[in-house]
# Entry
Amino acid sequence: MARKETITKDAILKAAFSLLQEEGIEQVTARKLAARANCSTQPIFRFYKSMEEVTQELCGMACAFFQDYYRKFQRQTVTPFVNLGQAYIKFAGEHKELFKFIFLTPERGGMSMYDILNGESGNVSREIQSATAQGSRNAGELFTRMWIFIHGAACMSLTGDYDLSDSETMQLLRDCYHSFR
# Structure
């Protein structure tokens, strides 16, 4: 009689994601993953050819996690790029390891940062359209300028060097929008 499989691919992936969230991608190794999933390394390699395959699946999960975070983020203004910027900065502070994995590594599953931010629902495209509707002469360039500022603030949030309140951040993002416009 064949032995019943007790560990599933889904359980391994959930264990890998929790390890990623808590300790970072560098710590998602076969041995640590096996320990987290409460199994040997054998089931991992039954489902995955390599740890690179695990990393690829984690990339998709992490990007979906960010998209869900942004979808649920409370909108506070109609000024383009401000809500997206606020969510991105807060995400960096609240989900440090996921932020580093998604936005600070060149390995993004073949996606650009823009692709990840835009997501399937067109987050950035919508913001660019809104900026155009509000009179921006070159909304794509405006997004680039805003994003350089936003990404810098998010990196400061990641390292603990960002201490502005939510309202101060919102005002700063609005000011940037109007000065870059």
Notes: Residues 61-180 form one domain. The chain has a mean pLDDT of 94. The radius of gyration is 19 Å. DSSP finds ten helices and no strands in the chain.
